[in-house]
Amino acid sequence: IPEDRFFNMHYPSGRPSEHLRDLKMMKEAGVQIKKVILAVDFLSIFLDFTIDESDLLSQPYPSTLKEYYNFYKNYALNIPGNDLISAAITNTAGERAQRIGNGSFSVKWKEEIIEGNPEAHIRDQTFRIPSSNYENSQNISRGLTHLKELVDFLKSQKIGYRLFINPTHVTTYLAFNIDAYLNVLREISEISDFIDFSGLNSVAISNLNFYETSHYREKVGDLIISRLMNKCDSLLPDDFGYCVTRENIDQQIERHHAWLSDYFHAERIDLPTEQTHFTTADAETKNIDFRIM
Length: 293
Prior knowledge:
Elements: H1 16-28, E1 35-40, H2 42-46, H3 65-77, H4 82-90, H5 93-102, H6 108-116, H7 118-122, H8 141-156, E2 160-165, H9 170-173, H10 178-191, E3 194-196, H11 218-228, E4 242-244, H12 249-266, H13 280-286
């Protein structure tokens, strides 16, 4: 974001409750916060997991003496596994500097492979496996409560913010209970306006926009920024990123249903009648190919 400055507070599977904790800590330390760009996805609302103490990269920043002690003790006593050692050896200083300097996350070796043989990437079998088989049927009230607390805090502190829903690869999206997912979007619209990048839009159904069924590529992040900042971008698809409010949430839900209908029609699949829930198990039964250009 060349015309502005932001702290990159992203970390894997970050949830609203954790972002709220970090923002409060920064305010207490005297940091002036003017604007926040907040990303939310199915993990943020549906998953209620405890932090794995063995995963050192996902530990929250310590704020008390006890937390400082446990934080550095875990690092001091940790015996790194082969995966971590390999990542440390192969990860270049330039890539680390990029993340620290401008906050962007670009996996250069993957980008080179994709650009070198895009057809092979499109046909990669990993795109048949959703990043989560979670059917979001559990009580989501806690996640929504944390999101409301975060939004209320930003408003009370007169901090400007933009809330958006992350894009989700088609395979992962179809592994959701879609009706429950759309109900969550309705619940979020009661808390705050947001920009919805999810659903089976032209970005979500293209394997070339994702590394696998979980992480989208840097170029997709650039499209998100263009939409959030109202920048003119010739590469930005018209169907990518809709402003959603409590007044127009019904239209957005209808848009999700229309995308689903279009996708099933294109793949010559009968749309489920009782509920919009589709999984890769159905894909195997109906011999669907997720090789979408």
